[in-house]
Amino acid sequence: MKTYLKYLLVIFFTIFSFYYTDKVIELSEYNNTILASIEDYAENNDYKCKEGYIKEDGIVLGLSGLEVNKNKSYNKMKGIGFKEELLEYKSNKCILNKENNLDKYIISGNEYKNNVSLVIDIDTLKYYNDMLLIAKEENVDINTLTNFNNIDSIQDKTNILYKTVSDDIKEFKKKVSNFYCVKTNNFDILKYCEKEKLNSINMTNYIDTDLLINIKKMLNNGSIIFIKENNKNLNELRASIKYIKSRGYNIVNIDTLLS
After folding, report:
1. From CA 224, how far away is CA 222, in angstroms rounded?
2. CA distances from 56 to 48, 106, 185, 198, 203 (A)
3. What backbone torsions phi and psi does residue 78 show, to the nearest 5 degrees?
4. Which residue, among 20, 188, 168, 12, has the nearest Cα to 103 in the 3D structure?
5. Exposure pattern of 54-64 as b/e (b: 16+ CB <10 Å)?
6. Is 248 left (phi over 0), alpha (psi -120 to 50) or beta?
7. What does the pLDDT look like over 170-228, one tens digit per residue?
8. How far apart are CA 204 and CA 62, in angstroms?
9. Which residues partner with 160 through β-bridges?
């Protein structure tokens, strides 16, 4: 009887081992199929950083890439199968990105997208609201360049850029949580803003008058165009926005341009 049971156990474990081995092979092949699908997807859809470059007056930002995180994606799909909506991604950051270059002036967003930003440089505040209204009617985001003295006059404190002639940046930060510094005239704001962990922009494209004519000269992918708040520019703003759109450009806020 004991011998009989011994043989039965041997047969049982033999059959079980074959079954288990078969299942392991089947599961391994199934998981390999998932991994292969992830790798195929990544090969066709990953895109690497398109690096920017450095000029004498500042940096042109690169365009960060996006890659499939294969390990995280695989761990989410095990036992389920390949599903595109379960893919996990990781950023492929450029060297010239805004986060790691606080010690350099930015002069342009990346040149790989048809995006530009318009910035109203507040002067008297007499025409400012009318300029904002035109931008709203044309369904575009527009940015505001101001100093500490005028910040309380601005109701919408998004898309703000900061200009200064003194070390009042700490007080400005109490009013606005997210903004960019701008170099105006010969005042070097970089050291103040870097200390506060803020990006700084070098104002290389500035339009005092003749808005439409000058926009035609300055318009490029990634351009940041500063527009003085005055009646002449107000009268040409709508036509200028329409012209920019007609050339295939998107007018975006400064965060989007520099992302």
Report:
1. 7
2. 26, 11, 16, 21, 13
3. -55, 130
4. 188
5. eeeebbbbbbb
6. left
7. 889 889 989 999 998 777 889 889 999 999 999 999 999 999 999 999 999 999 999 99
8. 18
9. 144, 179
Give the number of other Cβ atoms within 10 Å of residue 141's Cβ: 18
CB 142 within 8 A of CB 120: yes
Domain with CATH 3.20.20.370 in the chain: 113-257
Q: Please, are residues 223 and 212 in contact by the beta-carbon 8 Å criterion?
A: no
Q: Which two tokens mark 76?
A: 């989410």
Second CATH level (architecture) for the domain 113-257: Alpha-Beta Barrel (3.20)
Could you give phi then psi for residue 17, rounded to 5 degrees? -65, -40
Residues 6+ apart with CB under 8 A from 103: 190, 194
Token pair of 213, please?
Answer: 């004519």
First to last CA, the chain: 78
Reduced 3-state DSSP string for the chain: CHHHHHHHHHHHHHHHHHHHHHHHHHHHHHHHHHHHHHHHHHHHHCECCECCEEECCEEECCECEEEECHHHHHHHHCCCCCCHHHCCEEEECCCCCCCCCCCCEEEECCCCCCEEEEEEECCCCCCHHHHHHHHHHCCCCCEEEECCCCHHHCCCCCCEEECCCCCCHHHHHHHCCCEEEEECCCCCCHHHHHHCCCCEEECCCEECCCHHHHHHHHCCCCCEEEEECCHHHHHHHHHHHHHHHHCCCEECCHHHHCC
pLDDT in tens, 42-101: 888 887 889 999 999 999 999 988 898 888 888 888 877 888 888 888 888 889 999 999
